[in-house]
Structure formats: structure tokens, C-alpha cells
Amino acid sequence: MNLWQQVRLHLIFAFFGIAGFLARVGIIRLTAHQGLFGGGVIWANCAGCFIMGYLVGHVFVAAGPIQTSAAAPSSQTGTGAPELKPPFGDGRRAEVPAKSEIPLYVGLTTGFCGTFTSLSSAQLELFEIAASTTATIAGGTERGAYGGDFAFPNAGYGVPAGLAYAIITCSVSIASFQAGRHLAAAPYIKALTLTPRGLLFVELVLSALGAAAWVIVFVLAIVSGVTTSVTTTSGDGVLLTSSSALSPAARYWALGMVFSPVAVYTRYWVSRLLNPTFPRKFPLGTFACNMLATLVLAVLAVLQYGAPITVLMTGGISCQVISALADGFCATLSTVSTLVSELHSLRLKYSYIYGLSSVFGPFCLMVLIFGSYIWTNSYHASVC
């Protein structure tokens, strides 16, 4: 990509990073409820992988024919119709860039689908189920980040339950990706294919929306932290002081929308720099992003669900910032859709190595950081 395409791509990343964050948090909150085994992260990963599969199998740009002999009469027919040679005209077609060079395609896959799905959130949920932190045991109920309040006879039952959750998450994600590819290849589905000119127009519109979205979310993040005090005098001469500010939830959403595009940029550049290290064997960049996101999320989980740390976690802004970092930065930095897409591009042996490493590596980090803390200091209800 040239410089102008990179500028468009990063503005498109901003738009789809924000859209993916809103879509993921929205679908998790819509589908998660008390008593649900597995929470709503599975639904977000399912939808994101399905869209990713469709995009991978979809033809984005149609190449128009180049007919240099259109004005010349046909030697066979004697008419003014062009003499066509396979496939069109003189056999040449307009140059079509590779998908990886199309900002709209990269924005949709890396930006939207990568943000819509989250490996770190699934790892936190997996640990909470396996460690029985979200189960009702011996009359005591403790709720985790996404699920909770389902019954285990004893804490040991969390291990097979966690294994079941891991199998379900992997199976649903891979099956959804394949279903998306099948839909894109279905002969009775007429897919929208853009011309090069139409593609450029869509990219320019999304770039403008991305720039506007950046400005709006920064303003919202600043305004959401402003509190105004108004002093009035009642009819009895008593001074009345009232404070008003935006809803505390507004700060969470605003900060999440600020952190999400930053995580998209980080994932894109880390993958671009590190993935060529072991080409066609192990996408090191995506793996590093998933590991880093899980590591940071484990630290944030300690702050939220570990023993109360009054110095750092006093409620209010600190809780909203940590929640926004968890859902906006960590969940966006890690991805399941790109992971599944890469699994399908590798040979079988390397696919298993990469897939198992991407599942067990982040889980080990979660156990070492979050697990070791709560097992030595006990698990508490969220401070936030």
C-alpha cells in the first residue's frame, strides 16, 4: 500500500474499531444472563467468525475488460461489433489488487471482525468456569465477568465444564467461519461486488466517518468526566447546590471507543512486523497480540475481582477506566476471527501447533496471574 492508502486504512480502522467494540459489547450484554453457561462471548465470536469467513470467500472487486479493438470491424462478421477473444477483448483485464492491498477489505477483516471477536475475553471466561468462580457451590454464589450462578456439585466439576466451554468455543468459531465461506461461494447468493471506482468511493466515505468518529469519541471521553455544580436559591432563601454530569456508563462507552482503535492499530502493526518471522508456519504477530491482551486482562481481572485494593480501586473513574481497558483495549487487541482464518491457511501440522498454542498459551498466563492471586488471596465480587 502507498501512503495515501495507509492513511485511508487507518481512518477506516478507527471507524470499524469503534463499530466492532459496540457490536461485541452489545451482543454480549444482549445474550448473557444469570444462569447462562458460557456467557455471551461465544455469540460474539460466532458472529465475527461468520462474517470473516464470508469476507475471505467473497470477491471484492470486479475487473472490467480492456478492449483495445472495440472500434475495429470484425474480419469474420464484417460488422462493427468488436472481435472478442477469450475471456474478453484482447484477453487482458483491468488490474485488480490483492485482497490484502485493499483498505476496505483489511478494515473489515482486521478492523471489524478482529474487534468483534475476542480471545482474551474467552480466556477469562474459560478460567472462571474451570476455577469454579462463577458457580454456586455449597450455598454460596459468586458471579464472574460474563456468566455465573449455575450449580456445580463441587469445585472439581469446573474442570470438565471448562474443557467443554473450550471445545464449544473452538468448534463454534471454526464452524461459523466455514459457514461464512460456504455462503460466499453459494451460487444462488448474489454478492455485492464493487468496481474500482465504487471501492474508492466507499473507502473515502468510511475514512471521513472514521475521522469524525475519532473526534466525537475524544470529545465524549472528555465531557463524560466533567462535573458541573449549579447553585440556586429557593423561595425560602435557602441555597441549593446540585451537581450534574453525564451518566457514569457514558464514560465507560466513551473510553472504550477511544481504546478500541488504538488496539486495532497495535494488532495490525504487530502482525505486519512479526507474522513474516515464520511464514506459512506460525503467525507470530497474532499470537503475540493474543498473549499480550490476555496478560493485561489478567492483571485487570486481579484489580476487579481480587481482594479489594483500596489504593487503586476506589470506584467511580478508576472502575470505568479499568472496565473500558478490559473491553476496549484487551478484547480488541486479541482476536478469534483472524486466528481461525490463519488456521485454515496453514498446513495441517502447523495448524494444530498454532491452534493449540493459541488456546493453552493465553490460558496458562491467566492461571499464573489471575489464578495464583485469587487462590492465595480469595475471590471477591467485582469492586466495580
UniProtKB/TrEMBL annotation:
Pfam families: CRCB
Keyword rRNA-binding: no
Name by which UniProt lists this protein: Fluoride ion transporter CrcB
Protein origin, superkingdom: Eukaryota
GO MF, one example: fluoride transmembrane transporter activity
Membrane topology, from the record: Multi-pass membrane protein
Signal peptide location: none
Its biological purpose: Fluoride channel required for the rapid expulsion of cytoplasmic fluoride.
Entry keyword Membrane: yes
Keywords: Cell membrane, Membrane, Transmembrane, Transmembrane helix
Residue intervals passing through the bilayer: 6-23, 35-56, 157-177, 198-223, 252-270, 282-303, 309-340, 352-375
Region (Disordered): 70-89
Catalytic reaction annotation: fluoride(in) = fluoride(out)
Family per similarity comment: Belongs to the fluoride channel Fluc/FEX (TC 1.A.43) family.
